[in-house]
Design brief:
With 182 residues, the chain is of the alpha/beta class. The protein has one domain: Rossmann fold, CATH 3.40.50.2020. Helices cover 25% and strands 29% of the residues. The protein has helices at residues 9-27, 41-56, 109-118, and strands at 3-7, 33-38, 62-66, 97-105, 126-135, 147-152, 158-163, 173-178. The longest helix has 19 residues, at 9-27.
């Protein structure tokens, strides 16, 4: 299987730091801003952002993890049912700025479903989207990231794989690979 490296461990670290500085510039004291990691993979990215943010500047950040599984428009169309993850949000987002964090923006379905799912916690003032990888020519929905690490051109036959050391991989890395055909 052919693999092409998109971001290595050092580049991912630089991207996470850049995200933190952009957030500080745009949201100042974070008094009215919350961060939500989309379960499962966006939560891993959010954890890195929170950790780095605390290293850069001691801020009181409100953050949580949002599962949008049952809000997806393709939930019942799959051969095998999707497995839900836990939503961990202990605050309301009513009239707050929300930053949704995910690893890869592909068709836009996860981001759209997340917007539906977060309404259970109030109506946000504004929603921004942050992703490590923007697969920019593949949208089914008119959704664009406000913050992205890298934009890539991919084919439908390709897959973006995000690997984390914390999940047992040798190092953090993002790859483009060919989808396996059965």
């Amino acid at each position: 299987m052919q693999k092409r490296l998109v971001l290595d461990q050092k580049q991912i670290s630089i991207t996470i730091s850049r995200f933190c500085h952009q957030l500080i510039e745009n949201h100042d004291d974070f008094e009215n801003t919350v961060l939500l990691g989309l379960q499962p993979r966006g939560a891993l990215v959010l954890d890195r952002i929170i950790q780095r943010m605390q290293e850069i500047r001691q801020l009181r950040l409100r953050y949580g993890y949002l599962d949008a599984t049952f809000h997806r428009d393709d939930f019942r169309r799959r051969d095998l049912p999707l497995r839900a993850n836990e939503t961990k949000i202990d605050f309301l987002i009513e009239n707050r700025k929300v930053i949704l964090v995910d690893d890869v923006l592909y068709k836009g379905r996860s981001a759209r479903a997340a917007m539906d799912a977060m309404i259970a916690f109030g109506r946000p003032q504004k929603v921004e989207l942050m992703v490590l990888i923007d697969r920019k020519y593949t949208r089914d929905f008119p959704i664009q990231p406000d913050y992205f690490g890298r934009q890539v051109n991919t084919l439908e036959s390709q897959y973006v794989s995000v690997e984390w050391q914390s999940q047992g991989f040798p190092e953090d890395a993002i790859w483009i690979t060919e989808k396996e055909h059965n």
